[in-house]
Amino acid sequence: MKKLDNKGVSAIIGVILMVAITVAIAATVYVYVAGMLDNPGLEGTPYATMSKDIMGTTTIFTVMTVSGNDLYWEDVEIVLYNLTEQFKLPNTHVSTPSDTQRVTAGDTIWLEDIEKGKEYRITLIYLINNDTIYTTTWTQ
């Protein structure tokens, strides 16, 4: 009877195992990356772009673009900060469209009684996940 030569079996099994491990790692990386791309933020934080007009002690921010259709003013907190004197201004200086309205291009935020010669920062925060929708600084 003829004996089988088993010398090549070990190399074949090694190659099969290496291919299987490579496929498993590739599948794991694919699932991980696909999960990150499908959910870029906690709740998909919207963002906005705005223009600014300064008229004396009034600054008007106009919404130019906004991502998504489901952003309402009631879900937005406007934080106005005096960077020169390091304090947050109360929202009595701020007026916006009604809370139940969607945020759309053309909406305005009026900041009134803003002292000239001081540096300010305005930040719009999405209250659903506390992420920033828009922020900018300027000198009045």
Description:
The protein is α+β, with helices and mostly antiparallel strands and 140 residues long. The protein folds into two domains: 1-39; 48-139, Sandwich (Immunoglobulin-like). 21% of the residues lie in helices and 36% in strands. Strands 1-2-6-5 form a four-stranded antiparallel sheet, with no helix packed on it. The radius of gyration is 28 Å and the shape is rod-shaped.
Return the average pLDDT rounded to an integer. Answer: 83
Q: Helicity range of the residues?
A: 10-25%
CATH class of the largest domain: Mainly Beta
Which consecutive residue ranges, at least 5 long each, have pLDDT under 50? Answer: none
- Strand order in the sheet with the most strands: 1-2-6-5
- CATH topology assignment of the largest domain: Immunoglobulin-like
Shape, per Cα inertia axes: rod-shaped
Overall CATH architecture of the largest domain: Sandwich
**Largest beta-sheet details:** 4 strands, antiparallel
The Cα radius of gyration reads 28 Å
- Proportion in β-strands: 35-45%
Q: Separation of termini?
A: 99 Å
Give the topology string: H per helix, E per strand: HEEEEEEEE
Total domain units: 2
Number of helix segments? Answer: 1
The number of E-state strands comes to 8
| CATH H-tier superfamily of the largest domain | Immunoglobulins
Summing up helix and strand content along with how strands pair, one would put the structural category as: alpha+beta
